[in-house]
Specification:
Elements lengths: L19 H10 L5 H24 L3 H27 L2 E7 L5 E7 L8 H27 L6 H27 L7 H8 L2 H4 L3
Antiparallel strand pairs: 1-2
Helix pairs in contact: 2-3, 2-4, 3-5, 4-5
């Protein structure tokens, strides 16, 4: 049996940071460290759902309701993709074009997430998952009640919410498995060519 001994230089200075773990645990248990980001993560998506449900009560104009809801959904898509994902869970995704004109999807996860708290992460993921489910419910209710003019709006809602959900799941899966995050063919086609979906409407 062979014995391996690691040689350690006794003169080397080793800094022991005994309080760092407690500090990090305390920071993570703080309820909400980014209240404004948490507010904007939820406000646009909830406003779009509430407006969709009650828009007929306030306005008889389909065009006004359509524009208002699409605007809220667009604000939500932008804020979640560019701000709240980075602040609340340390994840972000985007598309970049290289010198050859090829499109590349990038999914990133921040290694040190000391700025995010568990409560913020819970709010982020619940909002990201529940809202597309609600819009899917709207899709079936619109389809079965034959309100076909609302169908385009509901499909836009599902598409915008699902795109963010897909992007952040890819970031999270890439972070946990340690594999490079490159989009699948179906996901790439969906994110690159939304006109395939909206062009038929």
């Amino acid at each position: 049996m062979e014995l391996y001994i690691a040689l350690v230089d006794d003169t080397e200075d080793v800094s022991l940071d005994f309080g760092a773990e407690d500090e990090e645990r305390t920071l993570r248990t703080v309820k909400i460290r980014h209240p404004l980001a948490t507010f904007f993560h939820l406000i646009f998506r909830i406003s779009a759902i509430v407006t969709y449900l009650f828009c007929d009560w306030f306005s008889k104009s389909f065009v006004t309701c359509f524009i208002l809801i699409i605007t809220l959904l667009s604000f939500d898509f932008w804020s979640v993709k560019n701000v709240t994902g980075r602040l609340l869970v340390g994840l972000r995704w985007w598309n970049q074009i290289d010198e050859d004109g090829k499109s590349h999807w990038v999914f990133e996860a921040k290694k040190n997430k000391s700025t995010a708290t568990e409560a913020e992460a819970r709010v982020f993921w619940l909002g990201l998952i529940i809202c597309p489910i609600i819009w899917t419910g709207f899709f079936f209710s619109t389809l079965f009640s034959l309100k076909l003019k609302w169908l385009a709006l509901v499909i836009a809602g599902i598409s915008l919410q699902a795109a963010n959900l897909y992007g952040y799941i890819r970031c999270k899966v890439g972070e946990e498995t340690g594999i490079p995050s490159s989009a699948s063919f179906l996901g790439q086609q969906f994110l690159q060519r939304p006109d395939i979906i909206f062009g038929a409407l």
